[in-house]
Amino acid sequence: MTTPKISVRDIEKVFPVGKEDFVALGGVSLDIADNEFVTVVGPSGCGKSTLLNILAGLEEPTGGTALVDGKPVSGPGPERGVIFQQYALFPWLTVRENVEFGLRTAKVPKDERRERAEHFIRLVGLERFADALPKTLSGGMKQRCAIARAYAVNPSILLMDEPFGALDALTRVRLQEQLLETWSQERRTVMFITHDVDEAVFLANRVIVMAARPGRIADVIDVGLPYPRDEDMRLSPEFGALRNRVWHSVYHQRQVKEPAQ
Amino acid sequence: MAIISTEAAGATRVRPRKSRTLLILNVVSVVAGLAIWWGLSLAGLQFPTPVEVVSAAWTMILDGTLVTDIGASLGRVLAGFALGSVAAVLAGFLMGWYTLARGLFEPWIQFFRTIPPLAMLPLVLVLMGIGESPKIFVIFLAAFLACVISTYQGVVNVDRTLINAARVLGADDGTIFARVVVPASTPFILVGMRVGLGSAWGTLVAAELLAAQAGLGHRMQSAQLYYDLPTIFVGIITIGILGLIMDRLLMLAGNKLTAWQESR
Protein backbone atom coordinates (compact mmCIF):
# COMPACT_ATOMS: atom_id res chain seq x y z
CA MET A 1 0.00 0.00 0.00
CA THR A 2 1.20 3.53 -0.76
CA THR A 3 1.68 6.09 2.00
CA PRO A 4 -1.57 7.79 2.93
CA LYS A 5 -1.97 11.44 1.98
CA ILE A 6 -3.01 12.30 5.50
CA SER A 7 -2.04 10.24 8.48
CA VAL A 8 -3.24 11.03 11.98
CA ARG A 9 -1.75 9.04 14.86
CA ASP A 10 -3.11 9.13 18.43
CA ILE A 11 -3.93 12.83 18.25
CA GLU A 12 -4.92 14.31 21.56
CA LYS A 13 -6.14 17.80 22.31
CA VAL A 14 -6.86 18.77 25.89
CA PHE A 15 -8.08 22.24 26.86
CA PRO A 16 -7.93 23.33 30.46
CA VAL A 17 -11.43 24.52 31.40
CA GLY A 18 -11.29 26.00 34.86
CA LYS A 19 -9.70 23.38 37.10
CA GLU A 20 -10.78 20.46 34.97
CA ASP A 21 -9.49 19.37 31.59
CA PHE A 22 -11.74 19.16 28.57
CA VAL A 23 -10.66 16.38 26.25
CA ALA A 24 -11.57 17.63 22.77
CA LEU A 25 -9.72 14.76 21.11
CA GLY A 26 -8.74 11.64 23.00
CA GLY A 27 -6.39 9.64 20.83
CA VAL A 28 -7.71 9.81 17.28
CA SER A 29 -6.04 7.86 14.49
CA LEU A 30 -7.06 8.12 10.86
CA ASP A 31 -5.58 7.62 7.39
CA ILE A 32 -6.88 9.36 4.30
CA ALA A 33 -5.75 8.21 0.85
CA ASP A 34 -4.72 10.48 -2.00
CA ASN A 35 -7.76 11.97 -3.81
CA GLU A 36 -10.15 10.46 -1.34
CA PHE A 37 -13.24 12.39 -0.27
CA VAL A 38 -13.80 11.85 3.43
CA THR A 39 -16.58 13.40 5.46
CA VAL A 40 -16.49 13.67 9.22
CA VAL A 41 -19.83 13.79 10.98
CA GLY A 42 -20.66 13.96 14.65
CA PRO A 43 -22.46 15.86 17.40
CA SER A 44 -21.14 19.22 18.56
CA GLY A 45 -18.24 18.90 20.95
CA CYS A 46 -16.87 15.74 19.31
CA GLY A 47 -13.74 17.59 18.25
CA LYS A 48 -14.28 17.41 14.49
CA SER A 49 -13.39 21.06 13.93
CA THR A 50 -10.40 20.74 16.26
CA LEU A 51 -9.15 17.82 14.18
CA LEU A 52 -9.48 19.90 11.02
CA ASN A 53 -7.72 22.89 12.59
CA ILE A 54 -4.84 20.66 13.65
CA LEU A 55 -4.46 19.37 10.10
CA ALA A 56 -4.71 22.95 8.81
CA GLY A 57 -1.89 23.94 11.16
CA LEU A 58 -4.04 26.51 12.97
CA GLU A 59 -4.01 24.57 16.24
CA GLU A 60 -1.42 22.33 17.83
CA PRO A 61 -2.27 18.93 19.28
CA THR A 62 -1.29 18.23 22.88
CA GLY A 63 -0.29 14.71 21.91
CA GLY A 64 0.19 12.45 18.89
CA THR A 65 1.28 13.30 15.36
CA ALA A 66 -0.39 14.57 12.21
CA LEU A 67 1.42 13.77 8.98
CA VAL A 68 0.70 15.18 5.54
CA ASP A 69 2.61 13.47 2.73
CA GLY A 70 4.61 11.76 5.44
CA LYS A 71 5.78 15.05 6.97
CA PRO A 72 4.60 16.38 10.34
CA VAL A 73 2.29 19.39 10.18
CA SER A 74 3.84 22.57 11.53
CA GLY A 75 1.73 25.60 10.75
CA PRO A 76 -0.40 26.28 7.67
CA GLY A 77 0.97 25.38 4.24
CA PRO A 78 0.02 26.01 0.62
CA GLU A 79 -0.63 22.30 0.00
CA ARG A 80 -3.58 22.48 2.39
CA GLY A 81 -6.48 24.75 1.45
CA VAL A 82 -9.06 25.57 4.12
CA ILE A 83 -12.69 26.55 3.66
CA PHE A 84 -14.44 28.02 6.67
CA GLN A 85 -18.09 27.93 7.65
CA GLN A 86 -18.22 31.73 7.91
CA TYR A 87 -16.83 32.10 4.35
CA ALA A 88 -14.04 34.35 5.66
CA LEU A 89 -13.91 36.36 2.44
CA PHE A 90 -12.06 39.66 2.72
CA PRO A 91 -15.00 42.07 2.49
CA TRP A 92 -12.92 44.92 1.03
CA LEU A 93 -11.75 42.81 -1.91
CA THR A 94 -13.78 41.83 -4.97
CA VAL A 95 -14.40 38.17 -5.85
CA ARG A 96 -11.42 38.23 -8.20
CA GLU A 97 -9.14 39.91 -5.65
CA ASN A 98 -10.20 37.40 -3.02
CA VAL A 99 -9.40 34.50 -5.35
CA GLU A 100 -6.05 36.12 -6.22
CA PHE A 101 -5.12 36.68 -2.56
CA GLY A 102 -3.19 33.44 -2.09
CA LEU A 103 -1.56 33.81 -5.50
CA ARG A 104 -0.31 37.26 -4.54
CA THR A 105 1.20 36.03 -1.29
CA ALA A 106 2.89 33.30 -3.34
CA LYS A 107 4.26 36.06 -5.63
CA VAL A 108 2.70 34.56 -8.76
CA PRO A 109 3.26 36.99 -11.69
CA LYS A 110 0.28 39.18 -12.53
CA ASP A 111 -0.72 37.60 -15.84
CA GLU A 112 -0.61 34.07 -14.53
CA ARG A 113 -2.46 35.18 -11.42
CA ARG A 114 -5.26 36.63 -13.52
CA GLU A 115 -5.48 33.52 -15.64
CA ARG A 116 -5.61 31.10 -12.73
CA ALA A 117 -8.13 33.20 -10.80
CA GLU A 118 -10.26 33.42 -13.94
CA HIS A 119 -10.16 29.64 -14.34
CA PHE A 120 -11.39 28.91 -10.83
CA ILE A 121 -13.96 31.71 -10.82
CA ARG A 122 -15.40 30.09 -13.96
CA LEU A 123 -15.21 26.66 -12.36
CA VAL A 124 -17.51 27.77 -9.53
CA GLY A 125 -19.72 29.76 -11.90
CA LEU A 126 -19.04 33.25 -10.59
CA GLU A 127 -17.66 34.82 -13.79
CA ARG A 128 -20.45 37.38 -13.88
CA PHE A 129 -19.62 38.48 -10.35
CA ALA A 130 -15.82 38.59 -10.64
CA ASP A 131 -15.71 42.31 -9.87
CA ALA A 132 -18.44 42.31 -7.21
CA LEU A 133 -17.79 42.89 -3.54
CA PRO A 134 -18.73 40.04 -1.14
CA LYS A 135 -21.52 42.11 0.43
CA THR A 136 -23.48 41.92 -2.81
CA LEU A 137 -23.31 38.09 -2.94
CA SER A 138 -25.68 35.53 -1.43
CA GLY A 139 -24.38 33.05 1.15
CA GLY A 140 -24.06 30.30 -1.46
CA MET A 141 -22.13 32.56 -3.84
CA LYS A 142 -19.82 33.65 -1.04
CA GLN A 143 -18.99 30.05 -0.27
CA ARG A 144 -18.38 29.30 -3.96
CA CYS A 145 -15.98 32.23 -4.00
CA ALA A 146 -14.22 30.82 -0.92
CA ILE A 147 -13.93 27.44 -2.67
CA ALA A 148 -12.41 29.11 -5.74
CA ARG A 149 -10.01 31.01 -3.49
CA ALA A 150 -8.85 27.80 -1.80
CA TYR A 151 -8.50 26.01 -5.15
CA ALA A 152 -6.53 28.85 -6.74
CA VAL A 153 -3.34 28.20 -4.77
CA ASN A 154 -3.52 24.64 -6.08
CA PRO A 155 -3.53 22.70 -2.81
CA SER A 156 -3.48 18.90 -2.91
CA ILE A 157 -5.75 18.81 0.14
CA LEU A 158 -8.96 20.69 0.85
CA LEU A 159 -10.05 20.96 4.46
CA MET A 160 -13.66 22.08 4.67
CA ASP A 161 -15.17 23.03 8.03
CA GLU A 162 -18.98 22.82 7.77
CA PRO A 163 -18.83 24.98 4.64
CA PHE A 164 -22.54 24.71 3.89
CA GLY A 165 -23.70 24.85 7.51
CA ALA A 166 -25.07 28.38 7.30
CA LEU A 167 -27.03 27.88 4.06
CA ASP A 168 -30.65 27.01 3.47
CA ALA A 169 -31.54 23.43 2.53
CA LEU A 170 -31.98 24.00 -1.19
CA THR A 171 -28.81 26.04 -1.66
CA ARG A 172 -26.98 23.44 0.36
CA VAL A 173 -28.04 20.57 -1.93
CA ARG A 174 -27.12 22.57 -5.02
CA LEU A 175 -23.70 23.38 -3.63
CA GLN A 176 -23.10 19.75 -2.71
CA GLU A 177 -23.73 18.74 -6.31
CA GLN A 178 -21.58 21.58 -7.55
CA LEU A 179 -18.76 20.69 -5.18
CA LEU A 180 -18.74 17.11 -6.45
CA GLU A 181 -18.66 18.40 -10.00
CA THR A 182 -15.75 20.70 -9.21
CA TRP A 183 -14.02 17.84 -7.42
CA SER A 184 -14.50 15.49 -10.39
CA GLN A 185 -12.79 18.05 -12.63
CA GLU A 186 -10.10 18.99 -10.13
CA ARG A 187 -9.43 15.93 -7.99
CA ARG A 188 -8.08 16.68 -4.54
CA THR A 189 -7.96 14.94 -1.19
CA VAL A 190 -10.91 16.34 0.73
CA MET A 191 -11.74 16.25 4.40
CA PHE A 192 -15.20 17.71 4.85
CA ILE A 193 -16.70 18.35 8.30
CA THR A 194 -20.47 18.41 8.66
CA HIS A 195 -23.23 17.68 11.13
CA ASP A 196 -25.63 16.78 8.34
CA VAL A 197 -25.89 13.00 7.82
CA ASP A 198 -27.38 13.34 4.33
CA GLU A 199 -24.57 15.59 3.25
CA ALA A 200 -21.96 13.29 4.76
CA VAL A 201 -23.19 10.27 2.79
CA PHE A 202 -23.86 12.11 -0.46
CA LEU A 203 -20.35 13.54 -0.77
CA ALA A 204 -18.05 10.90 0.61
CA ASN A 205 -16.05 7.83 -0.30
CA ARG A 206 -15.93 7.24 3.40
CA VAL A 207 -17.83 8.67 6.35
CA ILE A 208 -16.03 9.02 9.67
CA VAL A 209 -18.47 9.18 12.59
CA MET A 210 -17.15 10.88 15.68
CA ALA A 211 -18.43 10.86 19.26
CA ALA A 212 -17.94 13.33 22.09
CA ARG A 213 -16.46 13.24 25.59
CA PRO A 214 -13.82 12.38 24.84
CA GLY A 215 -13.69 13.26 21.13
CA ARG A 216 -13.05 10.00 19.28
CA ILE A 217 -13.86 8.06 16.13
CA ALA A 218 -16.94 5.96 16.78
CA ASP A 219 -17.41 4.37 13.38
CA VAL A 220 -16.09 4.39 9.82
CA ILE A 221 -18.57 3.69 7.05
CA ASP A 222 -17.54 3.05 3.45
CA VAL A 223 -19.87 4.54 0.88
CA GLY A 224 -19.66 2.26 -2.11
CA LEU A 225 -21.79 4.48 -4.35
CA PRO A 226 -20.27 5.49 -7.69
CA TYR A 227 -19.64 9.07 -8.82
CA PRO A 228 -21.08 11.17 -10.38
CA ARG A 229 -23.88 11.31 -7.88
CA ASP A 230 -27.15 13.04 -8.51
CA GLU A 231 -30.64 13.52 -7.15
CA ASP A 232 -31.77 10.03 -8.18
CA MET A 233 -29.01 8.50 -6.16
CA ARG A 234 -30.00 10.61 -3.17
CA LEU A 235 -33.47 9.01 -3.37
CA SER A 236 -32.24 5.46 -4.01
CA PRO A 237 -32.69 2.62 -1.46
CA GLU A 238 -28.91 2.05 -1.28
CA PHE A 239 -28.42 5.65 -0.30
CA GLY A 240 -31.23 5.34 2.23
CA ALA A 241 -29.65 2.30 3.84
CA LEU A 242 -26.28 4.02 4.19
CA ARG A 243 -27.95 7.11 5.50
CA ASN A 244 -29.74 5.07 8.16
CA ARG A 245 -26.53 3.41 9.19
CA VAL A 246 -24.71 6.71 9.63
CA TRP A 247 -27.74 8.19 11.35
CA HIS A 248 -27.82 5.38 13.88
CA SER A 249 -24.15 5.64 14.45
CA VAL A 250 -24.39 9.38 15.11
CA TYR A 251 -27.60 9.58 17.10
CA HIS A 252 -27.51 6.41 19.14
CA GLN A 253 -24.17 7.04 20.69
CA ARG A 254 -23.58 6.12 24.29
CA GLN A 255 -24.96 9.06 26.24
CA VAL A 256 -22.53 10.65 28.61
CA LYS A 257 -23.96 12.93 31.25
CA GLU A 258 -23.29 16.62 30.74
CA PRO A 259 -20.99 17.77 33.50
CA ALA A 260 -22.51 20.29 35.93
CA GLN A 261 -21.86 23.86 34.80
CA MET B 1 -19.69 58.06 18.42
CA ALA B 2 -23.17 56.76 19.03
CA ILE B 3 -24.65 59.74 17.22
CA ILE B 4 -22.49 59.15 14.18
CA SER B 5 -23.42 55.49 13.83
CA THR B 6 -27.18 55.95 14.22
CA GLU B 7 -27.07 58.79 11.74
CA ALA B 8 -25.18 56.71 9.18
CA ALA B 9 -27.46 53.71 9.65
CA GLY B 10 -30.58 55.86 9.53
CA ALA B 11 -29.60 57.59 6.30
CA THR B 12 -29.62 54.36 4.32
CA ARG B 13 -32.95 53.19 5.62
CA VAL B 14 -35.00 56.39 5.28
CA ARG B 15 -37.23 56.23 2.23
CA PRO B 16 -37.05 59.07 -0.33
CA ARG B 17 -40.46 60.39 0.67
CA LYS B 18 -39.55 60.47 4.30
CA SER B 19 -36.20 62.10 3.62
CA ARG B 20 -37.97 64.87 1.69
CA THR B 21 -40.26 65.51 4.64
CA LEU B 22 -37.20 65.64 6.86
CA LEU B 23 -35.48 68.14 4.56
CA ILE B 24 -38.55 70.39 4.55
CA LEU B 25 -38.69 70.24 8.35
CA ASN B 26 -34.96 71.08 8.51
CA VAL B 27 -35.47 74.18 6.36
CA VAL B 28 -38.56 75.24 8.34
CA SER B 29 -36.61 74.86 11.57
CA VAL B 30 -33.69 76.97 10.36
CA VAL B 31 -35.96 79.72 9.02
CA ALA B 32 -37.97 79.75 12.25
CA GLY B 33 -34.77 79.95 14.30
CA LEU B 34 -33.57 82.95 12.29
CA ALA B 35 -37.00 84.57 12.68
CA ILE B 36 -36.95 84.10 16.45
CA TRP B 37 -33.42 85.54 16.59
CA TRP B 38 -34.58 88.55 14.56
CA GLY B 39 -37.65 88.92 16.71
CA LEU B 40 -35.65 88.84 19.93
CA SER B 41 -33.16 91.42 18.70
CA LEU B 42 -36.02 93.73 17.62
CA ALA B 43 -37.76 93.16 20.94
CA GLY B 44 -34.85 94.91 22.67
CA LEU B 45 -32.61 92.01 23.62
CA GLN B 46 -28.97 92.99 23.12
CA PHE B 47 -28.60 90.80 20.00
CA PRO B 48 -27.50 92.22 16.68
CA THR B 49 -30.08 91.57 13.95
CA PRO B 50 -29.19 89.08 11.19
CA VAL B 51 -28.75 92.06 8.84
CA GLU B 52 -26.17 93.63 11.12
CA VAL B 53 -24.30 90.36 11.34
CA VAL B 54 -24.29 89.90 7.57
CA SER B 55 -23.03 93.43 7.05
CA ALA B 56 -20.32 92.90 9.67
CA ALA B 57 -19.31 89.73 7.86
CA TRP B 58 -19.25 91.59 4.56
CA THR B 59 -16.99 94.29 6.00
CA MET B 60 -14.67 91.62 7.40
CA ILE B 61 -14.54 89.86 4.06
CA LEU B 62 -13.76 93.14 2.25
CA ASP B 63 -10.95 94.19 4.58
CA GLY B 64 -9.54 90.69 4.51
CA THR B 65 -9.67 90.00 8.24
CA LEU B 66 -12.13 87.12 7.92
CA VAL B 67 -10.00 85.35 5.32
CA THR B 68 -6.84 85.88 7.39
CA ASP B 69 -8.56 84.58 10.50
CA ILE B 70 -10.00 81.53 8.74
CA GLY B 71 -6.60 80.85 7.21
CA ALA B 72 -4.86 81.06 10.58
CA SER B 73 -7.43 78.85 12.31
CA LEU B 74 -7.65 76.23 9.56
CA GLY B 75 -3.88 76.09 9.21
CA ARG B 76 -3.51 75.31 12.89
CA VAL B 77 -6.30 72.79 13.07
CA LEU B 78 -5.22 70.90 9.96
CA ALA B 79 -1.58 70.74 11.05
CA GLY B 80 -2.48 69.55 14.54
CA PHE B 81 -5.15 67.16 13.29
CA ALA B 82 -2.92 65.60 10.63
CA LEU B 83 -0.06 65.06 13.07
CA GLY B 84 -2.42 63.75 15.73
CA SER B 85 -4.18 61.30 13.41
CA VAL B 86 -0.95 59.89 12.00
CA ALA B 87 0.48 59.44 15.49
CA ALA B 88 -2.79 57.92 16.73
CA VAL B 89 -2.95 55.39 13.90
CA LEU B 90 0.67 54.36 14.47
CA ALA B 91 0.27 54.10 18.23
CA GLY B 92 -3.09 52.34 17.91
CA PHE B 93 -1.65 49.73 15.57
CA LEU B 94 1.37 49.14 17.78
CA MET B 95 -0.90 48.74 20.80
CA GLY B 96 -3.22 46.35 19.03
CA TRP B 97 -0.43 44.26 17.55
CA TYR B 98 2.22 44.18 20.28
CA THR B 99 1.52 43.52 23.95
CA LEU B 100 4.72 45.40 24.79
CA ALA B 101 3.49 48.62 23.16
CA ARG B 102 0.07 48.23 24.74
CA GLY B 103 1.51 47.75 28.20
CA LEU B 104 3.80 50.77 27.84
CA PHE B 105 1.40 53.21 26.16
CA GLU B 106 -1.90 52.42 27.80
CA PRO B 107 -1.43 54.02 31.27
CA TRP B 108 -0.32 57.31 29.71
CA ILE B 109 -3.08 57.42 27.18
CA GLN B 110 -5.72 56.57 29.76
CA PHE B 111 -4.34 59.25 32.09
CA PHE B 112 -4.11 62.04 29.52
CA ARG B 113 -7.51 61.15 28.11
CA THR B 114 -9.10 62.34 31.33
CA ILE B 115 -7.44 65.76 31.06
CA PRO B 116 -9.09 68.23 28.66
CA PRO B 117 -6.32 69.21 26.20
CA LEU B 118 -7.00 72.86 26.98
CA ALA B 119 -6.02 72.26 30.58
CA MET B 120 -2.54 71.56 29.24
CA LEU B 121 -2.37 75.00 27.62
CA PRO B 122 -0.88 76.95 30.56
CA LEU B 123 1.93 74.43 30.85
CA VAL B 124 2.48 74.25 27.12
CA LEU B 125 2.55 78.07 26.83
CA VAL B 126 5.22 78.28 29.50
CA LEU B 127 7.30 75.55 27.89
CA MET B 128 6.84 76.38 24.20
CA GLY B 129 6.27 80.15 24.21
CA ILE B 130 3.44 81.98 22.49
CA GLY B 131 4.15 81.12 18.84
CA GLU B 132 2.26 78.62 16.69
CA SER B 133 3.75 75.49 18.21
CA PRO B 134 1.90 75.47 21.57
CA LYS B 135 -1.48 75.79 19.81
CA ILE B 136 -0.66 73.11 17.28
CA PHE B 137 0.60 70.90 20.06
CA VAL B 138 -2.62 71.19 22.05
CA ILE B 139 -4.68 70.42 18.94
CA PHE B 140 -2.40 67.50 18.18
CA LEU B 141 -3.06 66.19 21.66
CA ALA B 142 -6.83 66.56 21.27
CA ALA B 143 -6.89 64.75 17.91
CA PHE B 144 -4.46 62.07 19.03
CA LEU B 145 -6.29 61.16 22.23
CA ALA B 146 -9.67 61.01 20.51
CA CYS B 147 -8.39 58.79 17.70
CA VAL B 148 -5.90 56.43 19.31
CA ILE B 149 -8.31 54.31 21.37
CA SER B 150 -10.60 53.85 18.41
CA THR B 151 -7.75 52.65 16.19
CA TYR B 152 -6.60 50.28 18.89
CA GLN B 153 -10.12 48.87 19.23
CA GLY B 154 -10.26 48.39 15.47
CA VAL B 155 -7.03 46.40 15.43
CA VAL B 156 -8.08 44.25 18.38
CA ASN B 157 -11.51 43.57 16.87
CA VAL B 158 -10.27 42.20 13.56
CA ASP B 159 -12.10 38.93 12.90
CA ARG B 160 -9.87 35.96 13.82
CA THR B 161 -11.29 33.94 10.95
CA LEU B 162 -10.03 36.51 8.43
CA ILE B 163 -6.56 36.30 9.92
CA ASN B 164 -6.72 32.49 9.80
CA ALA B 165 -7.97 32.63 6.22
CA ALA B 166 -4.96 34.77 5.30
CA ARG B 167 -2.60 32.44 7.14
CA VAL B 168 -3.81 29.33 5.34
CA LEU B 169 -3.39 31.23 2.06
CA GLY B 170 0.29 31.57 2.89
CA ALA B 171 0.39 35.13 4.29
CA ASP B 172 3.16 35.97 6.77
CA ASP B 173 2.73 38.45 9.64
CA GLY B 174 3.69 41.46 7.52
CA THR B 175 1.22 40.58 4.79
CA ILE B 176 -1.54 39.90 7.31
CA PHE B 177 -0.89 43.28 8.86
CA ALA B 178 -0.87 45.24 5.61
CA ARG B 179 -3.58 43.37 3.74
CA VAL B 180 -5.95 42.27 6.51
CA VAL B 181 -5.50 44.24 9.73
CA VAL B 182 -5.15 47.68 8.13
CA PRO B 183 -8.21 47.48 5.85
CA ALA B 184 -10.30 45.72 8.49
CA SER B 185 -9.68 48.49 11.02
CA THR B 186 -10.23 51.38 8.60
CA PRO B 187 -13.86 51.93 9.69
CA PHE B 188 -12.74 52.27 13.31
CA ILE B 189 -9.92 54.65 12.36
CA LEU B 190 -12.33 56.84 10.42
CA VAL B 191 -14.75 57.06 13.33
CA GLY B 192 -11.79 58.00 15.52
CA MET B 193 -10.68 60.64 13.04
CA ARG B 194 -14.14 62.21 12.95
CA VAL B 195 -14.26 62.41 16.72
CA GLY B 196 -10.67 63.67 16.67
CA LEU B 197 -11.48 66.41 14.18
CA GLY B 198 -14.40 67.63 16.28
CA SER B 199 -12.23 67.63 19.36
CA ALA B 200 -9.38 69.41 17.54
CA TRP B 201 -11.66 72.14 16.20
CA GLY B 202 -13.20 72.79 19.61
CA THR B 203 -9.80 72.91 21.25
CA LEU B 204 -8.40 75.24 18.60
CA VAL B 205 -11.00 77.94 19.00
CA ALA B 206 -10.69 77.85 22.76
CA ALA B 207 -6.88 77.97 22.51
CA GLU B 208 -7.14 81.04 20.31
CA LEU B 209 -9.41 82.73 22.83
CA LEU B 210 -6.64 82.42 25.38
CA ALA B 211 -3.51 83.06 23.37
CA ALA B 212 -3.31 84.14 19.75
CA GLN B 213 -2.66 87.14 17.53
CA ALA B 214 -4.88 85.92 14.70
CA GLY B 215 -7.62 83.39 14.15
CA LEU B 216 -11.37 83.21 14.68
CA GLY B 217 -11.09 82.76 18.43
CA HIS B 218 -8.74 85.71 18.72
CA ARG B 219 -11.06 87.90 16.62
CA MET B 220 -13.99 87.11 18.93
CA GLN B 221 -11.85 87.72 21.98
CA SER B 222 -10.83 91.21 20.83
CA ALA B 223 -14.39 91.99 19.72
CA GLN B 224 -15.51 91.22 23.23
CA LEU B 225 -13.34 94.08 24.54
CA TYR B 226 -15.15 96.55 22.26
CA TYR B 227 -18.61 95.13 22.90
CA ASP B 228 -18.71 94.30 19.17
CA LEU B 229 -21.52 91.74 19.13
CA PRO B 230 -21.91 91.42 15.33
CA THR B 231 -18.26 90.36 14.98
CA ILE B 232 -18.70 87.79 17.73
CA PHE B 233 -21.72 86.42 15.88
CA VAL B 234 -19.76 86.27 12.62
CA GLY B 235 -17.08 84.32 14.48
CA ILE B 236 -19.51 81.84 15.97
CA ILE B 237 -21.32 81.21 12.70
CA THR B 238 -18.07 80.82 10.74
CA ILE B 239 -16.74 78.33 13.28
CA GLY B 240 -19.95 76.30 13.02
CA ILE B 241 -20.01 76.30 9.23
CA LEU B 242 -16.33 75.37 8.89
CA GLY B 243 -16.69 72.59 11.46
CA LEU B 244 -19.69 71.21 9.62
CA ILE B 245 -17.91 71.32 6.24
CA MET B 246 -14.82 69.53 7.57
CA ASP B 247 -16.94 66.87 9.26
CA ARG B 248 -18.94 66.23 6.09
CA LEU B 249 -15.81 66.04 3.95
CA LEU B 250 -14.30 63.47 6.27
CA MET B 251 -17.56 61.53 6.31
CA LEU B 252 -17.70 61.47 2.50
CA ALA B 253 -14.10 60.29 2.28
CA GLY B 254 -14.91 57.66 4.91
CA ASN B 255 -17.96 56.39 3.02
CA LYS B 256 -15.82 56.00 -0.08
CA LEU B 257 -13.15 54.07 1.81
CA THR B 258 -15.53 51.74 3.63
CA ALA B 259 -18.10 51.13 0.89
CA TRP B 260 -17.29 47.41 1.22
CA GLN B 261 -18.93 47.17 4.64
CA GLU B 262 -22.08 45.11 4.99
CA SER B 263 -24.87 47.42 6.05
CA ARG B 264 -26.54 46.06 9.13
Give an overview in words:
The complex is a heterodimer of chains A (261) and B (264). Chain A is α/β, with parallel strands linked by helices and 261 residues long. Chain A has a domain at 1-74 and 191-261: 3-Layer(aba) Sandwich (Rossmann fold). In chain A, 35% of the residues lie in helices and 25% in strands. Chain A has 8 helices and 10 strands. In chain A, the strands form 2 sheets. Chain A has a 6-stranded mixed beta sheet, with helices on both faces. In chain A, strands 2-1-4-5 form a 4-stranded antiparallel beta sheet, with helices on one face. The longest helix of chain A has 17 residues, at 169-185. With 264 residues, chain B is mainly alpha-helical. Chain B has 2 domains: 1-47; 49-257, MetI-like (MetI-like fold, Orthogonal Bundle), CATH 1.10.3720. Chain B contains 11 helices and no strands. Chain B has helices at 2-13, 16-42, 50-62, 65-97, 99-113, 121-128, 132-156, 160-168, 173-210, 216-225, 229-257. The model of chain B is unreliable at 1-11 (pLDDT under 50).
Please describe the topology of this protein.
The complex is a heterodimer of chains A (261) and B (264).
Chain A (H helix, E strand, L loop, with lengths): L5 E12 L2 E13 L4 E5 L6 H9 L6 E6 L2 E2 L7 E4 L11 H11 L4 H14 L15 H14 L4 E5 L7 H17 L3 E6 L2 H7 L2 E6 L4 E7 L8 H4 L2 H15 L10
Parallel strand pairs in A: 3-8, 3-9, 6-7, 7-8
Antiparallel strand pairs in A: 1-2, 1-4, 4-5, 9-10
Helix pairs in contact in A: 2-3, 2-4, 3-4, 6-8
Chain B lengths: L1 H12 L2 H27 L7 H13 L2 H33 L1 H15 L7 H8 L3 H25 L3 H9 L4 H38 L5 H10 L3 H29 L7
Order of helices and strands of chain A: EEEHEEEHHHEHEHEEHH
- Percent helix of chain B: over 70%
Strand content bin of chain B: under 5%
**Any idea how many domains of chain B?**
2
The secondary structure category of chain A is alpha/beta
CATH class of the largest domain in chain B: Mainly Alpha
Structural class of chain B: mainly alpha
Poorly predicted runs of chain B: 1-11
What would CATH call the architecture of the largest domain in chain B? Orthogonal Bundle
Q: Which homologous superfamily in CATH is the superfamily of the largest domain in chain B?
A: MetI-like
Low-confidence stretches of chain A: none
CATH topology of the domain at 1-74 and 191-261 in chain A: Rossmann fold
Helical region count of chain A?
Answer: 8
